[in-house]
Design brief:
Largest sheet: 8 strands, parallel
Distance between the termini: 36 Å
Mean pLDDT: 96
Radius of gyration: 18 Å
Bound molecules: NADP nicotinamide-adenine-dinucleotide phosphate
Low-confidence stretches: none
Helix content: 25-40%
């Protein structure tokens, strides 16, 4: 099976589809990660806040796969912005790994105003080889601009909520202009009705795929890295099989134009672990 990847500005290659592991606990993460590897997953998304890094690490080891063939992304919480080396050390200890492939600042937490310090720390940790790539999560263009102005170094990735109900054109344009790869969290809308949307079910019927495959194909054809969570073997397999769905440019545009009333995206100015 081919692992599709996207080149990051630091020179590594990020697998385009990850298994999202929230809200799995350690036991579930261990089981699902190992079975996902058998299905062909090579990229796993976890975080200190998910409290499942031990299970993710155990699942990787249970699978018997070479460490070098796996991409592990994790994130640390707000308390480590002033001590990022300690934060990442905790991630590594819980995962049982010597390095991660991608370390992210989970939220900007502007109320404590230490995210530039966290970013300076990640730049150093990448130089030390403890993270092969570094980035951010839930950062707005204003937050990213501050990082770039302060350090001259742009994140390699920004992971943010993104799906056809909330397709973030301004953020994506900013990322593209600065060589930042966009990663979509809650790509399937996390139960907000997106998978029952008539446009989505209609396209699924026309193309002979599932509604989830339509949405994940919308990500990958646009160069967006996507991290759907599933614990079900059948859905895990279908979520990886989205590279030949056959969406046209018009289909992509129609999906991008979807909006829904009552969807409240998370505001990174006010929320964060
Ligand atoms: N950076 C951040 O702040 C942040 C925030 C939230 C999430 N995340 C990351 O993003 C990942 C994904 O987000 P999410 O879990 O919120 O939402 P999601 O991936 O959009 O949706 C997950 C839900 O969709 C179901 N599902 C999965 N595949 C399906 C399919 N093919 N057909 C129908 N239903 C399907 C899953 O159920 P089953 O398991 O039963 O299949 C689960 O209930 C998380 O696991 C986490 O790693 C990051």
């Amino acid at each position: 099976m081919t692992t599709h990847t996207i080149a990051l500005s630091g020179g590594t290659h990020l697998p385009t589809i990850a298994l999202g592991t929230w809200p799995m606990d350690d036991a579930e993460a261990r089981r699902v990660v190992a079975s996902a590897i058998e299905l062909g997953y090579r990229h796993f998304d976890t975080a200190e806040n998910y409290e499942n890094e031990r299970g993710v690490g155990d699942g990787l080891r249970d699978s018997g796969i070479d460490r070098a063939d796996i991409w592990v992304t994790t994130k640390f919480n707000r308390r480590w912005h002033a001590a990022p080396a300690e934060g990442l050390k905790g991630n590594l200890q819980r995962l049982g790994l010597d390095y991660v492939d991608l370390a992210l600042i989970h939220w900007p937490n502007p109320d404590q105003d230490r995210y530039v310090q966290a970013w300076e720390g990640l730049i150093e940790l990448r130089a030390q080889g403890l993270a092969r790539a570094i980035g951010t999560s839930n950062f707005t263009p204003a937050h990213l601009t501050r990082l770039i102005d302060a350090t001259g170094v742009a994140p390699e990735v920004n992971q943010l909520e993104l799906h056809p109900y909330f397709d973030r054109p301004a953020e994506r344009a900013f990322h593209a202009a600065h060589g930042i790869v966009t990663e979509a969290w809650s790509p399937l809308g996390r139960g907000n009705g997106l998978l029952d949307e008539p446009l989505v079910t209609g396209l699924a019927g026309r193309l002979g795929v599932t509604p989830a495959q339509v949405i994940l194909a919308w990500d990958v054809v646009q160069g967006i890295v996507t991290i759907p969570k599933s614990s079900d073997p059948g859905r895990l397999a279908q979520n990886l099989d989205v590279f030949d769905v056959g969406l046209t440019d018009a289909d992509v545009a129609a999906l991008s134009a979807l909006t829904a009333s009552g969807i409240e995206p998370v505001d990174p100015e006010r929320f964060g672990h």
